[in-house]
Structures are given as C-alpha cells and as structure tokens.
C-alpha cells in the first residue's frame, strides 16, 4: 500500500516538474538512457551538473563584477552553462540563459546581472525540486526492493 | 529541444523583421504619397469657406455703397439746383415788388412834394395804390408816413386835423421827430395817423433807410391782418433831388417821409413754389439770418420733419444790405433705398456664395477621395502583408506539425518492430500509412507556403541526374508493375553525368509528375525522357521535316490492331516521343559519340545546361475544360478526380513553382482518353571535374565497372523500348545492338558465327529479350536457335539469354527457363543498378552488393549501426559529455571521452582504433574546427606515407586509408555553421542534445558507406 502510494507520489512529482515547465523532453531522454547497467544515470548526471555549474556560476559572478566587463568571457561561460542545463533538460534555466546571452550580445550589463539573479534562483529552485524528487524516487525504489 | 527553440526564435525574429520591413515600406509610402495642398490644409477648409463668404459679403457691401453714393451725389445735385432755382426766383419776385415800392416812393416825391400844392391826397393815394396793387401782389398794403419834426408837430396836427398817435393808438408823446402815416392803401388804412417811429423796429428801419436811401426790411413778424409771417419794407422819400453820392447827413436832411409796405413772405413763397414742379418733393424754409446765432424763420415750419441728412442752403439777397436771408431746402422724404444697387450687390453675394460653396464642396470631395485612396492603399498593403503572413503562418504551422508527426511515425515504426498480433499490425500499418500521407501533404503545403513566402532557396550541389531518375522509377516500380504499365526512363547521352542543381527539388518534380502519371494511367506506359533543350528543338524541326517529306508514318497496322510506335504501342498525346522523333535523337547521339570529341568539349565549355524533361503517359488525360487550371493549387480536373484518385492537387502547382525557380517552364499536352505529356525545362550548372570526385561518394550509387566491354543484343519489336534498354546497358558500359525480332537476331548471329568462326568480335555476350518479342516468336524459333548453335558444333560460349518483363507469371517463367533463359528475369522498370545486379547474378561475376539499403529507420537500426563501434566524444562540458556518452552507449557503442581538443588530438594519434568522433565545436583553447583541421592534417601526412609506400610496392593506389569520421555537435544548426563544418573536414553534424532521428541520419551516412568503400 505504502509502496504504491510512494510510486504515485513519484509519478505526480515528476509530472508536476514537467507541467510547471521546469524540465523538458531532454530529461525524459536522460531517463531513457537509464537502464540496469546504469541505474542512477540521471541522478549522476544531475549531480555532475550541479557540481559543474557551481564552478561556472562562480566564474560568471566574477566576470560580472570585474570592470571593464568582458562580455566575450561572460558569453563563453554562459554558453557552457547553457549547454549543461540544456543537456539535463532544465527548461526554465535554459530559457533564462538564452535571455542572458541576448543581453550579453547587446552589451547590457544591467540586464545580465538581473537575468543572472533569476538564473541562480531558478537553478536553486530546480535543485531543490530535483533533490526532493530523487529522494522520493530512491525511497520508492527501496520500498520496492525491500 | 534547444534546436527547436532556436528555430522558432529565428522564425519569430524573421517575422518581426518582416513586419518592420512592411512598416518601413508604409512610411516610405506615406512620404511618397505627397499630400496635395488641399489634403494638407483640410482643417482650414471651413475657415476658408467662412473667409470667402466674408470677403464676398464685404465686396457686395462695397458695391452697394458705391452705387448708393452715386445716387446720393445725384440727389444732392438735384436738391442744390432746385433750391438755387427757387431762391433766385424768390429774389427776383421780391426785387420786382421792391422796385414798385421804389416807384411809389418816387411818385410820392414827385407829386406830393415837388407840386405845390400837392397833387396827392389820401384819396388819390388810396385809389392809385388800390388800382396798382396787382403789380405788388406780395405787398399786403403800402402807406406813406411823413417826416414831422417836433417843431412842426402842432402845425402838422392842425393841418391834418388829427393828432399823431403811437402804435398803440394813443397820443404820441413828444419826440424829436415823428413819422405819422398820412397816406395809406385802403387795406392798411388802420395805420393812418400812427407814428411809425414809435415802434422801435420801425424807427430803426426808417433811420437806416433814410441814411442809405435804399429799401430796408424788418425782421419777420406776424402781420396784423393775415397772421402770415411777413416783413415790412421801408423806403425813404426825399424832398429834393439829391446830389451825386450824397452823404448820410445830406440824405437825412433831404428825407421827407417814408414809404412802407408789408411783405407777406409766406404767401410769396407759397405762390412761388406752387408754380414750380417738384414742389412736393422738397421742403423749403426761408430764414432771416442777420443774427447768425438766432436765425428767424420767414417761411416754413420750424419743426418740420423731413430728410434731415441732406440739406442745401442758398443765399437770398433782398436788396437790404443790413439783413441777410437764406433759403434752406431739404427733401421731404428720406432717400429711397436704391433697389438696383441692392439687387446687384445681393446677386453678387449670391453668386460669390455659390462659387464658394462649389469650391468648398469640390475640396471636400477631393479630400474624401484622397482619404479613400489612402485608406485603400493602406488596406492593400495590409492585405499583401496578410498574404505574406498567411504564407509564413502556413510555413510555420506545417513545420510545427511535421515535427510531432515525425515522432508519431517513428513511434509507429518502433511499434511495428515489436511483437504484434496481425490485427494490431494492420492497425499500426494503416496508421503509419496515414501518417505518411499526412506528412507528405504537409510537406507539400510547406513547400508551397515557402515558395509563396519567398523562403525557398535552391541548392546548387553536384548530383547524378540519372541515378535520381532511377530512384524515382524504383519508387513507382511496384505500383506500375501491379498495374501492368511500362515505366521507362531515357536520358540523352549529351546530358552531362553530373550537373549542379538541387537534386531534392528535381526529384520532387519528377516524383510528382511520374506519381500523377502512375495515378491516372491504367494501361500503356509512362516514359520519362531527358535531353538537352537545344537538342530537343532540333529534333522537333527534324520531325517537322519528316512530316513534310513523307507524312507521318507513326502508326503501322500490326496484326489487325492499330499500333503506335511509342514505348508501349499505345497512342501518346504528344508524338514527340514516338519513334519517328526519337530516332533522330538516338541517331544524332550515335553520330556524336562516334564522331568528334570536340563537340562535347565545346558543350562543356558553357557554364550552364538547359535540360528538357518530359513525362509521357497514356492515361486518362486531362479534360479540355480543366486544362487551364491544372497548375492552380488545390485544383483538380474535377471533383470526381479526387474521389477516384485521391490527392490534393497541390503537387503540380508546386512543381510549376519549382520549375520556375530553376529557370524553366513547364507545360503539357494532353488529350482526353489518350494521355498527357508534361514537359519542363530547367537550367543546371555544369560540374567541374574536380568537384566530381568529392561528390561521387556521397550522391551517386557507383555502378560496377565490371561489365565494361561486354556486348549485348536487345531483341525488341518496339524501337523506343529498345532504345531505353540500350541506354541502360550503355550506362553499364555494355555495347548493345538491337534486333527487332528473334529471327532477325538469330540470322545475324548465324551469319556472323559462320563467317567469322572462332572470331567473337561481334558475338554478343548477353541477349536481352523483351517478353513480348519472345512470346510472339516463341512458336517458331525460341527453342530452335540455341539448338542450332549446339548443332553447329562451334566452340564458343553461348550468350546468356535474359528475359525482360514488366510482369511475369510462374508458368511463363518456367517456360522461359525451359527454353534456355537464365534464371533471372530482369523486371521492369529498368534501372542501371538493378540491371547490373541481375547481370552479376547471371554472369556470376563480381560479388554481391550488401543489401543493407532497406533497413528500417529507428533505434534498432541505430543500434545495429553503432553496436561495437568505438567512438570518441569530445566536449569540454562534463554534463554534455556524459549525456552524449550515455546516449551512444545505449546504442551499444564503445565510448571514450575527451574533455578538450588537445586530448582528442592525443587520443587520435595514428594508429588508433576509433570508428568515429563526435566533436563539440565551441571549446576553450582549441575549438572543434581547429581540432578537426589538425586531425585531418595528421591523417593526410600518414596517408601520403602509406600511399607512397604502396605506390612503390604495388602500383595500385588505395587512397584515403585514414579518415576517421568526425561529426560536429552543435546546438545552433545554422547553415553557415554546417558549411564551416564541412570546410574544416568534418563529415556532418548532429544537434545537441541528441535527437534520435538526427543522429541516425548523420551516422548512417558514413557507417553505411563504409563497408562498400572498404571492400
């Protein structure tokens, strides 16, 4: 009974992540890649995304406060960040990244800073949501094996 | 996903850009429009009108005033002249009366004083005056008063017997002098004995009169008798003759008395005026103005009304130097309004008003018309914009529909791979078929919309026209075989092997036309023919010549049925493809191929080549009434067509657009129940030799060269069909001869065989027999001539007998085998590759080509492609790298990762065991392009070494040993990026993150090609 409940909850949380636009198809593709040989593939990828992105965020923050602003460097960092986020299917973050790059192209530092705040926020929100989701999924998995 | 987003964004951007363009256009229009003066000052129009009305009113008023002023001047002149006239007459009459009084005075002086005794007494005087009163009509009466000095008073009173009385009829007090009236006219007898000097005024008059010797007038007063206004005239009478120029004292001294008369001025003037015309019109007043500040009225009423505005004054001289008189005239009535002036002014005003109104109306109308015009213009711009927007919308929407449709189709394909019950499979297959149809339709709509929106751009890549035609034919081979239609293609030798153009679009046009033909043809043939445009024209002329010379020998009677010398023997709509015309073409070619090479070289010198493609069918044709709307989108011949044959009718319109994009024209000749021939021209670029090599691998299926030098005999009764067969053989390098029947063929061989025994120079290696010819010649010789050969005992290899057939039954097949044909029947439509495969099978040479062509699309195939392959993934982004690696591993690949271009370079040091490399483009330090360039450099160095060695060793170059396929991984798939990928030596690109279809397409290209090129 509990197991079924957990399963349902996992499904529900997962669905809400898609419905609310946090994730897109790419995440599903990641899930597809997960199999017996690679049981925690998605989680691993997401974890590496967060460890990787922490570095990138730091780089971007530094580039944002340095004067004169090196838009080329900002764009490079953001390209990487965007690449990572689109790889895990972080839809909202990805969209903000696009916005950021547009500001970057236009040389609008205020827009960059503002957008970057939003990116960080979305990034953190998604992290929380995903952690919650993985937690649930793990519980469900344990319950299943138990 | 990212790719899609970007595309949408791109489209959106493009759209935005476009709308901006429209706006700019509008603005330009606005400035170009050039508002007219009226339009620009439209707000002023009512003001202009008002101003105009005011102006007109003002002018009218001026006109009125001018005319009125004239009138007034005239009136004034009239008044002046009348007044002067009256004054003169009055003066005249007055002086006449005065003269009479003067005469009386002289009478008195003469007869009273100069006669002694006096000849005049009261009675005489009264009588005389009474009798002469007619001469003084204005004088009410005259009287004579004698000058009496006080000293003489007593004497005088005694003499006359009465005392001197004052005016009040009292006894006069004592004075220096008296002037008692002694003679008086009867009318004024009441003044007799009255002292005239007792009245103050009379006294003054008397004094003045005797001092001057002239008539003196009193100021006007009311006369005693008539109560009319009057004046008294006093005249001095002198006793003795006066000296010349007497002094005043002398005059006083000499004065003896005074003659007076009362003038009735009122009656005088009344009479006078009564005599004159225009009496009623004017009002006359006469004034005594001696005291100018207080004019005394002598005639007329003081307070008479009348026209006070216009007054005329005339001087009056009544002969009294002490008094001044004047006459004042004015009109009785005010000046009448001048109707002419009023009417003129009014008419002018009305006319001005009308003119103003008309102008205003015209201006308003112009403004309205211009407004309407601008509105229309704007609507037009909007309509055009809407049209463009529609096309864009269609393009976008169909694109958006296509994407999920691909998903559906892919899923269906996967579903079909799984274990399904037959019903389920049927359902899924139906769904797939429907989906395919839908996507085909969407593609067509998208194409059309793209063309309309001007977005479609044609590629210019080298491609092999012939293999494309073969492909198209193979598409329809199944259908045509089922229907029993012959499907054939013929490409003139003069058409270059490789042309520059858009193979996809060319294929689309051909597919469309052939598809249509297949759809509408139930019997006969469909024949695709390609040749040079100029060439085609020449043939047409040649044909015309032949028609002139011998008439059309198109049809011959064959076994009772009317047969045409077309591909299948059925009549075609356009007889250009018939043998008569075709012969020229083929003959021409033979001449050229055997003849001069320089013709070819001159042809190749020109940059472009115009091809004429015709698709001939013997179908139902197009009804005459529908022929003019064949190329309109969504129009089919009639509504029943779509019921019977399906389809949307958009294909031809797209084909037309595409043909026009290719710089050609499309047209058709169609005869109902006979067939249609669609032909189009298209310009392609000629391909240079060096580009050829590069392309060869990608685009053209390479035909085996192992047949080169073989000889073949084609046995076919229909020359056109035979020519087609020969064309395909020729492409394989086989020289073919044509025989119209087996007998003829056998005859030729027999002769050859016997004549040149052992010499196999003309001995065919293969005999290709058309099924029709075989069946018709079966009874006679089919089994005979192979036997013949055997009997002849000559030792040479028997030619292989191969049957050509559109369709063949098992019975026929067995029979054919029995009569010496090879196992393999070449099924039509003929394709060079297919013929090659069959010949290989029959002749047993070469090896079989791997039949991996028709493997279904999908992950299972991807797995089969990638399984066991060793792949290097290069990406600096760890997440991306892991995802890519994960995806590739899933398909069974053996993945290694590199996090930078440098690492990749190290790993790819030769020799290595990688089968492929996926390379991210944007990487720090060394980007994907640079890394690829270096890898290629490395490879070419290595290859040169190998080639050099092998050259020495063997002499047969095996080029391109080391070439690891490198695929770019990129998120933005723009054309420019793709070009750059190719430029630096990459083999393709995949979008990032991976999409299965995209990955499949990219990978299939070289993993499929590999076994062939390696073999």
From TrEMBL, chain A:
Annotated Gene3D superfamilies: HPT domain (1.20.120.160)
Sequence intervals crossing the membrane: none
Pfam families: Hpt
GO biological process, one term: cytokinin-activated signaling pathway
A Gene Ontology cellular-component term: nucleus
Cell compartments where the protein resides: Cytoplasm, Cytosol; Nucleus
Keywords: Cytokinin signaling pathway, Two-component regulatory system
Annotated GO MF terms: histidine phosphotransfer kinase activity; protein histidine kinase binding
InterPro entries assigned to the protein according to its UniProt record, in alphabetical order: AHP1-5/YPD1, HPT_dom_sf, Sig_transdc_His_kin_Hpt_dom
Description of its domains: Histidine-containing phosphotransfer domain (HPt) contains an active histidine that mediates the phosphotransfer.
Xref: PANTHER family: HISTIDINE-CONTAINING PHOSPHOTRANSFER PROTEIN, PHOSPHORELAY INTERMEDIATE PROTEIN YPD1
Function: Functions as a two-component phosphorelay mediators between cytokinin sensor histidine kinases and response regulators (B-type ARRs). Plays an important role in propagating cytokinin signal transduction.
Protein name: Histidine-containing phosphotransfer protein
Organism of provenance: Hevea brasiliensis (Para rubber tree)
High-level lineage: Eukaryota, Viridiplantae, Streptophyta, Embryophyta, Tracheophyta
UniProtKB/TrEMBL annotation, chain B:
Domain of life, source organism: Eukaryota
Gene Ontology molecular function, alphabetical: cytokinin receptor activity; phosphorelay sensor kinase activity; protein histidine kinase binding
Substrates-to-products reaction catalysed: ATP + protein L-histidine = ADP + protein N-phospho-L-histidine
Keywords of the record: Endoplasmic reticulum, Kinase, Membrane, Phosphoprotein, Receptor, Transferase, Transmembrane, Transmembrane helix
Transferase as UniProt keyword: yes
Positions of post-translational 4-aspartylphosphate modification: 920
Any Pfam family the entry gives: Receiver_CRE1
Entry EC number(s): 2.7.13.3
Keyword Secreted: no
Residues annotated as transmembrane: 49-67, 339-360
A cellular-component GO term for this protein: endoplasmic reticulum membrane
One GO process term, biological-process aspect: cellular response to abscisic acid stimulus
Xref: Gene3D superfamilies: 1.10.287.130, 3.40.50.2300, 6.10.250.1190, CHASE domain, Histidine kinase-like ATPase, C-terminal domain
Subcellular localization(s) per the UniProt record: Endoplasmic reticulum membrane
Chief location bin: endoplasmic reticulum
Domain Histidine kinase: 396-686
Residues covered by the CHASE domain: 116-328
Domain Response regulatory: 711-843, 870-1007
Membrane topology: Multi-pass membrane protein
Protein name in the entry: histidine kinase
Protein's organism: Hevea brasiliensis
